[in-house]
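Data deposition worksheet. Section B asks for the primary sequence of the deposited chain exactly as it was used as input, without tags or linkers unless they were present during the calculation. Section C holds the resulting structure in token form. Section D is free text for depositor observations; keep each observation to a single sentence. Incomplete worksheets are returned to the depositor.
Section A, Depositor: J.P.
Section B:
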Amino acid sequence: MAAAAAAAAVGGPQQSQPELPAPGLALDKAATAAHLKAALSRPDNRAGAEELQALLERVLSAERPLAAAAGGEEAAAAAGGGGGPGAAEEEALEWCKCLLAGGGGYDEFCAAVRAYDPAALCGLVWTANFVAYRCRTCGISPCMSLCAECFHQGDHTGHDFNMFRSQAGGACDCGDSNVMRESGFCKRHQIKSSSNIPCVPKDLLMMSEFVLPRFIFCLIQYLRDGYNEPAADVSSEKDLNKVLQLLEPQISFLEDLTKMGGAMRSVLTQVLTNQQNYKDLTSGPGENACAKKSHEKYLIALKSSGLTYPEDKLVYGIQEPSAGTSTLAVQGFAGATGTLGQVDSSDEEDQDGSQGLGKRKRVKLSSGTKADQSIMDVLKHKSFLEELLFWTIKYEFPQKMVTFLLNMLPDQEYKVAFTKTFVQHYAFIMKTLKKSHESDTMSNRIVHISVQLFSNEELARQVTEECQLLDIMVTVLLYMMESCLIKSELQDEENSLHVVVNCGEALLKNNTYWPLVSDFINILSHQSVAKRFLEDHGLLVTWMNFVSFFQGMNLNKRELNEHVEFESQTYYAAFAAELEACAQPMWGLLSHCKIRETQEYTRNVVRYCLEALQDWFDAINFVDEPAPNQVTFHLPLHRYYAMFLSKAVKCQELDLDSVLPDQEMLMKLMIHPLQIQASLAEIHSNMWVRNGLQIKGQAMTYVQSHFCNSMIDPDIYLLQVCASRLDPDYFISSVFERFKVVDLLTMASQHQNTVLDAEHERSMLEGALTFLVILLSLRLHLGMSDDEILRAEMVAQLCMNDRTHSSLLDLIPENPNPKSGIIPGSYSFESVLSAVADFKAPVFEPGGSMQQGMYTPKAEVWDQEFDPVMVILRTVYRRDVQSAMDRYTAFLKQSGKFPGNPWPPYKKRSSLHPSYKGLMRLLHCKTLHIVLFTLLYKILMDHQNLSEHVLCMVLYLIELGLENSTEDESDEETSVGGPERCHDSWFPGSNLVSNMRHFINYVRVRVPETAPEVKRDSPASTSSDNLGSLQNSGTAQVFSLVAERRKKFQEIINRSNSEANQVVRPKTSSKWSAPGSAPQLTTAILEIKESILSLLIKLHHKLSGKQNSYYPPWLDDIEILIQPEIPKYSHGDGITAVERILLKAALQSRMNKRIIEEICRKVTPPVPPKKITAAEKKTLDKEERRQKARERQQKLLAEFASRQKSFMETAMDVDSPENDIPMEITTAEPQVSEAVYDCVICGQSGPSSEDRPTGLVVLLQASSVLGQCRDNVEPKKLPITEEEQIFPWDTCAAVHDVRLSLLQRYFKDSSCLLAVSIGWEGGVYVQTCGHTLHIDCHKSYMESLRNDQVLQGFSVDKGEFTCPLCRQFANSVLPCYPGSNVENNLWQRPSNKSMQDLIKEVEELQGRPGAFPVSISSETNLSKEMESVMKDIKNTTQKKYRDYSKTPGSPDNDFLFMYSVARTNLELELIHRGGNLCSGGASTAGKRSCLNQLFHVLALHMRLYSIDSEYNPWKKLTQLVEDMNSQLGNDEQPEVPILYHDVTSLLLIQILMMPQPLHKEHFTCIVKVLFTLLYTQALAALSVKCSEEDRSAWKHTGALKKNTCDAEKSYEVLLSFIINELSKGKLYHEEGTQECVMISPIAWSPESMEKYLQDFCLPFLRITSLLQHHLFGEDLPSCQEEEEFSVLASCLGLLPAFYQTEHPFISASCLEWPVPPFDIITQWCFEIKSFTERHAEQGKALLIQESKWKLPHLLQLPENYNTIFQYYHRKTCSVCTKVPKDPAVCLVCGTFVCLKGLCCKQQSYCECVLHSQNCGAGTGIFLLINASVIIIIRGHRFCLWGSVYLDAHGEEDRDLRRGKPLYICKERYKVLEQQWISHTFDHINKRWGPHYNGL
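Section C:
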């Protein structure tokens, strides 16, 4: 129908075709297709071709869909006869499929084509969130990735691989040898299969070649028609999406074609790239209106994109550059501004402010280029592929289109064509990206494509050569950044010509530029491409131009008055931009400048870099002083320059001086990096505090591990280079001036600082000295090898803290180009790590915090390699430096090397590279010596604002100077001999070694008039003077650093080049004084009479607190001078440091040695006598007091810690059996003493009374742990294949359920509910921390919690709280029963009553209603509390776990529930003890057991329900009935036969029905009676288990012994009697076929029978013994496993005391029958006989009770996490059949659930919460598949528990971010299981939160 209508509309040839019904049409299609195929196969196929064209014209007409899309329903109805908009498209697709198949079936056609697939490549394309693999061992390109299937099929054992979640999507590279090594190919893609694939038969794909061009053209027309230029409103975006939805089936069809394999792909490639096809189909706009319209739309779209369609037949291709000009000049790539200007004004009116500026800027850029036909502006489409890509970009890269285009890539021809097309559209992509609203998604899609194209070196090289890829990329980047430039405010705000990017713009804030930059970095990683870049001068100029946009961006100005209103966060954008757009391309280029042959490249870069820097200095009007109070952290040009210099010297053997500029330029170069260093110190001194936190953030980011080697390291290196080439005095004075501490460096005790507040002086001085130390000792770029650098970095990080493997990888700055593949020396990473660190395996601490595997420094590393300088350089937080020092101190204490507080150790440096030797001149310049002398003097004189840190750094610098002294001693010694020839009033020469001994007598200082120095008269010389020869007669002058620096600067600037090589040292003149010095300064002359050496010796005295403490060590031991490296001096405090320096000084010169000895011989008087001693004393006292206080504090802390520890042990851990005395005080006297309780709230102690009861803090929780017991020891395995499944029917809970429902089918309901226990699932477990409180105190405590708004993870409304003393989680209070705690007296008297009397007493006591000291009628506080706690217990579990009766709400239910609570708690305690009582001892829970109190509460409530005495089982057990048949008369369901009763349940019922407190003798009596029943059950079960022959044999042997004396204690007799009795019914008869299963094949020997009987009875004995232990406080004896039965039996009093242990123990000897055994057994068997006559099967099943339950376990997990992940992460959910976003699996039962999945929600409960209620009664343990972590749900709260899977380095990998292989950590899993079994999740895990049923 639709086809006919279409034909009519177009006016096609078959207008008159009759309308066929639809099925006929399908046949017709096939027939037509076959006919056409035949026609086309003829040699002359013109007719066929025309016919086909006409048909396609008709079927694929583009009119209808246009109408549908544009005009809505009416138009569609009119055109398509009501077919709806989708019908025509479907029809068209059907036609296409038929035609392609040429009349056959489409599926068969697909299969046929697939057979010819020569798939050597995988090429699988995936989208975001897909799980893929990357193997660095096999990858050639770092972007290599594999799909899971190829990865697992290949062999990657031992490789460095990881799994990752794809961010942007990708494609599998398996089979592509350009990207990965062939050894890593998987089995499918290893074979080069082209040889054995047959040729494709011509006719198979013939139709495709005709049909597909039309089909693709049709698609393009759709895209043209659907596109409307997005206006201001957003609706147009929706329209685009609509068009895309309509096209979904067409694109999917194309995608399916690509999946048919290589044969079809090559046809598609032909179609897409054939220019003739495209021309024929698109260039005939005249033929019909429709096509014409579509062509117009296409032109409009081109124009609106700012592109022109070159109507003149100028072919867009690459013109041959005319000889000698750069390609840039011809093409006008540098900015093509003529056209750009206009385009921009239409595009971006909003940026009016920056527009003019931008234009001005651009004009400047483009000068000298012919702006004819630009990269930016011309697109001419010549094939379908090109226009398809154009529309793909226009529509912002729809996922489907991207996938289709990528699916084609395995076709080599297509790959090349597509890459060229992509490059041709590059500028257009950038424009679209800039305008896009969804730039994130779009970026991902762009990179998804480009990474496939540019990772391939061969392809990248080809495109670079043929399409000018580099020119295009650089130009596009430049153009992109030009749109957001602003004027730079650095330095000279008014006249600055420099422009920088504006970091606040969306382009930078949202990282919109990253796809382009990442492509650029990617292509630069290819050597051939990078070489072209480095050789092309034009490109380098443009690139430096681009980099200069970032130079000085994000300028910070220091706020001086009030706090900044709005803290801008632009710095994130700035740092990211410098790292990504500047640094990473730089690292990429550097990686190709590794060998000598590449010197030329470095020279190019350095040359253009310096030119750009020179332009920058001119643009910002920089002379010599930086503008105050401003800093930028971004100097990419400086850093490019520095890094290329470093590379040149390190790898290319270039002469450094050949690439360095003149001195003036060096002076300029050092200013800004130095400004940053000074600003860092200012920021840390809180001088920038008014700029807000963000400035601290910048300071931290600058040194942070991902940025440091692109920022601070190059900066420091550049400063080192400048320092090594500039005048040292100039450099040193510049440093102190930048750090604003010049005024502080005066001998005077008071000074004025014009630029710095006093409070900042100290930290700025520390900053300046620290900077100098770093500058002089850092060797990162000055000669260290890569491995040494790695080692130093690693040691620094490990010294700060122990580190995990992954954090070390993260913290150690790698060459930060992520595309550079293998981290430089990643193989050596492991070897260095093992050399410097020890691995600490992950441990689990009892507090519940989980440790990761950590690396900690080896002892010898602390001893020899700890380098404080490196640590300071690399710390982001200042506290890390402290942490490193603390750890160092601890090491020294522990290893006994040094007991006190050590100073940072001095570390010897590796040697300098010869090019940088000049750096050491800094240490030997007078300026520095004057500063050091001044500071030593000030420290000695206790001037203010000096710290130990300052002294430490001063000594460090002196030591550095001594270590690096070069000049020869000999000539120097002679020169001093004569009269002093010193021009300079401070020091004679510049060598530190000789200057150290130079005495300085007087110094003239400028001081404020108030200073103490002024008031003194001219000082008389106090020291008796032996050293006259060395004294200088004149006084020294004022020394001004600033003046010094200015002069040097002038000299350097004015000096003509001819003298440039002579170093001139000008004399200091006294005329200079500090600029801006206030008038009230006056000059004073100080007498000093010290040298650096004498100051050091006095300092030693001062530090040690003793006079004359220094004694030259070489006087005793001359060896010292020969072997200076003495371990004694390597660690220690300031005293050690001074000794070490003096020793080195003495070693360096004989003269110094002599002078040191002289100074020491003189008795040194204190400098100003009074002052020093007072201060000395003061500091000493202070120190002593501090020391004492410290010791006191230590003691207190230790005591506190031990208390806390012992408390934690009692409160926290679950497994340690504790034998300490229970909290309730028990007394040993025979009389009854009342138990006394302490209330932890009010602190009073006393007994619990009726009116003011005390209670135990308890946590009630429902538990299904018991129900998870199975009867085999091995835990079940987690299913990891479809075949494996876990069936729950062998669990304890299931077996008990089946038993109860079986009983309820045949017996009276009320009696069934007494015959079993429930609580295997959803039983209530009660645990306590052992602390008690008054119940009224507790109520007020809860009130206060309710009013406290800050609630921690628990809900007070649900009664939850934490114990006020130990903070353990709890939710109820269990009242303590008044009276004695343990009934000592009642069981100490041995009873002489006969068994019969006791039986009667028991019966009477049970019959007495409410025989209680507390009568229920009089409501007391106690009884109220008892009731409320019972309510709590009931509400703890769900109704379904309480109600088992057929009549809802029957009292029998409550009765059953209550004694089952007791059962649950006893059974759980047994499990906590490991399933048996062999260990004996007190209860594991020790004082934390609350069973006694729980029993009282339960008993009180049980006695409210009296059992009808008729039905009391006690009677059945102890009395014979006269007439057995009388019971069978009534029709109603019979009672449960006593042999089917669960004996343990009977025990609890009997005991809880007795009045409390219970007498021991009654207890024993009940146990003895029940044991007879149990034993009978055991024999009956045994008789059913064995075969007919065995039975008759036993029947016979037993009958013979029946009349012996102790027949009733012989199991053989009893067994034969039971067999005899039971065989009267039909129990044994039905020997059906399935019976064979039950018969055990083993022959029963007497031993095995005895063992069976004992095993049958043991569970009962264990529970009974536990109960006795709790009720009467007796200890449990410990024993071997094999004697457990006999020990427990005698402990329970079943064995007579005089019993002689025969060697083989016979269980029957414990029997004590209350009535003649044969009579009572007959009676019991009779009940069964009557039942089995009707139901033999069930009768038999009920007799065999499985009682041998093993301990519960969680599922066993596989060794390797990958096996779980691969199976579950793609598994579909059984409820909603979708693959869940967050799949999880229950570790208790293996159920697969959706976490947070809304699909599986039921009544507002999500699936995990629901499952936790059904599977664990509110406790769920789930493994989150995608995160590898375990989550615990407990009631209404949840917590993340951690992971039980760790990688090879003992670390978790939460969310699988690192994707390394993970292995099970058995210890952790054990801990998890232990917490589950012991119900301690609430106590051990701290971070709980509510889940609001949403998990």
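Section D:
DSSP finds 74 helices and 28 strands in the chain.
The longest strand covers residues 1323-1334.
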